[in-house]
Amino acid sequence: MILGINSQNHDASMALIDGPNILWAAHSERYSRVKNDNRIDRDMIEDMKKYGEPTQIIWFEKPLQKSLRRLWSGQRPWYDHPKFELRRVGLDHLPVEFVGHHESHAAAGFYTSKFKDASILVIDAIGEWDTVSVWKADETGLKKVWNKKYPNSIGLFYTAFTQYLGLKPNEEEYILMGMAALGKYTITDFLKKEFFSEFKPPYFKLRRNLHKGCLWWDRPGGVSDFDIAASVQAVMEEYLLETVKWIHYNLPSDNLIFMGGCALNCVANSKIAKLGLFNNIWLMPNPGDAGSAIGAVAAYTNQQLDWQGPYLGTDIDRELDIDSIVKDLLAGKVVAVANGRAEFGPRALGNRSLLCDPRGPNAKDRMNSLKRREAFRPFAPAVLAEHADTYFDMPVKESPYMQFVARCRTPDLLPGICHVDNTSRVQTVTAQDNPRFRALLEAWYAASGCPILMNTSLNVKGEPLVNSWADALRWQEINGVTVY
Ligand SMILES: [Fe+2]
Distance from the CA of 145 to the center of ligand 1, in angstroms? Predict the structure, then answer.
């Protein structure tokens, strides 16, 4: 039994894997209640032990390479060595192997896909050195065929502008992406000239290292924060789309896999899908560093994993009172659900969710009475999979993990789940994806005639997703709303 660990990054995580079976996987933050906690939490280890005792640890990242890069870039080279971290949490008796950052991303994608072969694109802010890598995968394993190294990083470019716009770098890139729809991409070419000495995707060269941000940059007159977001997003999309075309030409395959933190950009993901160059696209639903707890093990064993879905964390084993939930929804209430195993990944997909009727002009306000998010940001729809095409212009056949946006065909009916450009980040739900959530959606559809629920994460503002039943009860006490 192998324990994969990602720690000392932005969002620590662990995964327990036995042969092809992913027995358990979780994020530290869900236990420590510290958002994006970067250290291993002891309660997380206790939860993991309910599923088995590991005999081997695979650590995501190679410490020596990472230290050398940190030294080169003027950071403290000897961050806490993984062995000290393992000693701190009582796991230092187990043998440890280290695997590469981008190799783990690529392996997480390929070995959770059902593909026999694939072309793989990995893009993030920074691995040990790699910032972009392209891989070929088949039954013989993974082979890196192209890479770009730090300090040239398209991910760091996006992150630097996240900070520039007053958002939290390495965390709130999704808000920049949401802001982009409200601006005009008027300075796209200007940004390319200003920040890149070469921009011929996949090849590019930054004029200067953006690791420490770009707060020094003076924007041209009359350009709003939203215009900057739109232009930064446009640069990222151009890079991605041109790189995918390059991969299609140079590494033809039916199957594309996209991994790394940049694969969380669901607006860009949809445009890649719409290119139509590959028959199938797979993005493992936790494509960033946290998902590499699984990826590290996959890179080490080089074996296909039996991917059943992202419901891999803490179990809340209770009956779900669907009748009462539907009654509350029909009465126009927001319903909280904490049931089954917690989602491994950034999205609440029905097991730690706030739900409400998405119809009518007041749906967003009702949800915001509990969520209080930025006014311009919509909530996501969860839809019975067979009804998705009726309401949304889907760029992919299925979207069970909210990784793609789709134009809503009835924005006047569903304003609370539509962004300003009338797109929605759709979750399609089948019985195979999540039988209990599917049963709830079916009951809601039978009672209301609407196959969609507004679905957002169940958390106290600023905290990670509710994890345990004790967290759920605390949420219930703070908000005065029943948790089912
Ligand atoms: Fe990464």
Answer: 18
CA 290 to centroid of ligand 1, rounded, Å: 8
pLDDT along the chain (484 residues), means of 10: 94 97 98 95 98 98 88 73 92 97 98 97 94 97 97 97 96 94 96 98 97 95 96 98 98 97 97 97 97 98 97 97 98 96 97 96 89 84 98 96 97 93 96 97 98 95 93 94 94
Question: 327: CA distance to ligand 1 center in Å?
Answer: 43
Distance from Cα 387 to the centre of ligand 1, integer Å? 35
Distance CA 348, CA 379 (A): 12
pLDDT tens sequence across 64-99? 888 888 888 877 766 678 989 999 999 999 999 999
**Ligand 1: centre distance to CA 336 (Å):** 32
* Tokens of residue 31, six digits: 């236990």
CA–centroid distance, 348 to ligand 1, in Å, is 21
Pair 67, 128: CB distance under 8 Å: no
Ligand 1 geometric centre to CA of 398 (Å): 25
Q: Please say whether the beta carbons of 382 and 441 come within 8 A.
A: yes
Instruction: Specify the pairing of strand 255-259 against strand 118-123.
Output: parallel
Give the separation between CA 73 and CA 53, rounded to whole angstroms.
Answer: 39
- Predicted TM-score (pTM) of the model is 0.96
Closest CA to 60 of 113, 114, 25, 8: 8
For residue 386, which phi and psi values (nearest 5 degrees)?
A: -70, -10
- Compute, in angstroms, the gap from residue 330 CA to the centroid of ligand 1: 43
**What are the Cα distances from residue 15, in Å, to 283, 383, 403?**
18, 29, 22
247-301 per-position pLDDT tens digit: 999 999 999 999 999 999 999 999 999 999 999 999 999 999 999 999 999 999 9
Give 134 Cα–ligand 1 centroid separation in angstroms. 14
